[in-house]
Automatic annotation (TrEMBL):
<dbReference type="GO" id="GO:0005634">
    <property type="term" value="C:nucleus"/>
</dbReference>
<keyword id="KW-0234">DNA repair</keyword>
<protein>
    <recommendedName>
        <fullName>RuvB-like helicase</fullName>
        <ecNumber>3.6.4.12</ecNumber>
    </recommendedName>
</protein>
<dbReference type="GO" id="GO:0006325">
    <property type="term" value="P:chromatin organization"/>
</dbReference>
<keyword id="KW-0378">Hydrolase</keyword>
<dbReference type="InterPro" id="IPR027417">
    <property type="entry name" value="P-loop_NTPase"/>
</dbReference>
<comment type="function">
    <text>Proposed core component of the chromatin remodeling Ino80 complex which is involved in transcriptional regulation, DNA replication and probably DNA repair.</text>
</comment>
<keyword id="KW-0804">Transcription</keyword>
<dbReference type="InterPro" id="IPR010339">
    <property type="entry name" value="TIP49_P-loop"/>
</dbReference>
<dbReference type="GO" id="GO:0000123">
    <property type="term" value="C:histone acetyltransferase complex"/>
</dbReference>
<keyword id="KW-0227">DNA damage</keyword>
<dbReference type="InterPro" id="IPR003593">
    <property type="entry name" value="AAA+_ATPase"/>
</dbReference>
<dbReference type="GO" id="GO:0005524">
    <property type="term" value="F:ATP binding"/>
</dbReference>
<keyword id="KW-0539">Nucleus</keyword>
<dbReference type="Pfam" id="PF06068">
    <property type="entry name" value="TIP49"/>
</dbReference>
<keyword id="KW-0067">ATP-binding</keyword>
<keyword id="KW-0156">Chromatin regulator</keyword>
Length: 452
């Protein structure tokens, strides 16, 4: 028996996000004809790379190009990672998108190829169709008996009705908690999945429409269900192959999905699961959804990883591989020979290359503006202009970092807007790479001088 259900609220837990380097990116910023807008969804310029990424995205959505690979290549800070993040948001939650950086493979406490295998399987979705039994009805009454001690098991009763019948159900602690979490009250129409115990609020009963004020404007009103309380219903849910691996791995169990501490997964477990999934496919119970595996800084992988990837892409359970690098002709790690982008020729052969180009001053200014909005920073015009200059002369990333620090300096002097002086201040406090390198060179020559 292969289990495919993960704890119901896991998605929410994994979606917590803070303001990160790419949090202003919400998609590829396309118009109705799938053409990139000059500015859209946080994306600025880099139009031809975005157009290519959009085309790739269309093919991914149609599920047509499993086993294919694309490479974003271009100078540092030209938006390669940003475009990949844009693709991820545009794909939506039902197509898996896994993002990992080439250097991470060396810091994980498992072998590089196991880590790659897990990343590949995280990027393949299995859409499973199931018949489940649900209980659906209008809540007549919900009653919870709190134990006198305040601790221990809670018990309660739930009365549900349809237009034709009414039944009282006993509630255990877990169900009570689900009910409380969903804030279920009398007059709600709810659905309970019998297998998982998941409670879903479908809306308020029409008969309660008159209590509109009490329900609040966001309430949706639905009819009281007809017929039996218990029904069979077809539901579709998507899990990744990796999730199925972990749930069924006796040594770890699904709790490992929370901690991410999955360790190595036995080959036999994977073989069993592959066999089961292909059986389900034949029976029409499941479809494969090839997702995207994004490997950033791909030149950090070594020849062993590249061979493994190449082989994995041949398999019929393969995702779409998207890679990014800022290297030109570089030695392939673990070998003595050079290859374009540090990727072996046999893998390069199957790759569609998308190149990114340096930004114009106008585009840099626009990106900085978008970042200011993202970080809730008000910046005076002359400050933004000088920051743009800094961006063109040092790097976009450096300029972006100065936004946050300049904001702190402005706040410290009690100002609500970042001024030119604040930018100057942080520019002298935090040096960019060129200046830092300059200082070190100077320092070094002094040292050598003293040694002589
Ligand atoms: N076209 C763009 N629109 C909006 N923001 C962008 C764009 N390009 C880059 N950025 C932002 O600029 C910063 C640097 O870009 P990014 O990290 O994507 O560069 P990269 O090409 O991946 O560089 P590296 O080669 O160093 O990894 C990020 O914060 C990114 O979100
Ligand atoms: Mg990058």
């Amino acid at each position: 028996m292969i289990a495919v259900h993960k704890p119901s609220d896991m998605r929410d837990l994994m979606r917590l996000e803070r303001t990160g380097a790419h949090s202003h990116i919400h998609g590829l910023g396309l118009d109705d004809h799938f053409e990139p807008k000059a500015v859209g969804q946080g994306m600025v310029g880099q139009v031809s790379a975005r157009r290519a990424a959009a085309l790739l995205l269309e093919m991914i959505k149609e599920g047509k190009i499993a086993g294919r690979a694309a490479l974003l290549a271009g100078e540092p800070g030209t938006g390669k990672t940003a475009i990949a993040m844009g693709m991820s948001s545009a794909l939506g939650p039902d197509t898996p998108f896994t993002s990992i950086s080439g250097s991470e493979f060396y810091s994980l406490d498992m072998s590089k190829t196991e880590a790659l295998m897990q990343a590949l399987r995280k990027s393949i979705g299995v859409r499973i169709k199931e018949e489940t039994e649900i209980i659906e009805g209008e809540v007549v009454e919900i009653q919870v008996d709190r134990p006198a001690t305040g601790q221990g098991t809670k018990v309660g009763k739930l009365t549900l009705k349809t237009t034709e019948m009414e039944t009282v159900y006993d509630l255990g602690t877990k169900m009570i908690e689900s009910m409380l979490k969903e804030k279920v009250v009398a007059g709600d129409i709810i659905s309970i999945d019998k297998a998982t115990g998941k409670v879903t609020k479908l809306g308020r009963s029409f008969t309660k429409e008159r209590d509109y004020d009490a329900s609040g404007p966001q309430s949706k009103f639905v009819q009281c269900p007809e017929g039996e309380l218990q029904k069979r219903k077809e539901v579709v849910h998507t899990v990744t192959l990796h999730e199925i691996d972990v749930i069924n791995s006796r040594t770890h169990g699904f709790l490992a999905l929370f901690s991410g501490d999955t360790g190595e997964i036995k080959t036999e477990v994977r073989e069993q699961i592959n066999a089961k999934v292909s059986e389900w496919r034949e029976e029409g119970k499941a479809d494969i959804v090839p997702g995207v595996l994004f490997i950033d800084e791909v030149h950090m992988l070594d020849i062993e990883c590249f061979s493994f990837l190449n082989r994995a892409l041949e398999s019929d359970l393969a995702p779409i591989l998207v890679m990014a690098t800022n290297r030109g002709l570089t030695k392939v790690r673990g070998t003595e020979y050079e290859s374009p982008h540090g990727i072996p020729m046999d893998l390069l052969d199957r790759v569609l290359i998308i190149s990114t180009v340096p930004y114009t001053e106008k585009e840099i200014k626009q990106i900085l503006k978008v970042r200011c909005e993202e970080e809730d920073v008000n910046m005076q015009d002359d400050a933004l202009n000088i920051l743009t200059k800094i961006g063109t002369e040092t790097s976009l990333r450096y300029a972006i970092q100065l936004i946050t620090t300049a904001q702190l300096v402005a706040q410290k002097r009690g100002a609500s807007e970042v001024s030119l002086a604040d930018i100057k201040r942080v520019y002298s406090m935090f040096v960019d790479v060129k200046r830092s390198q300059g200082y070190l060179d100077e320092y070094q020559s002094e040292l050598l001088y003293h040694q002589a």
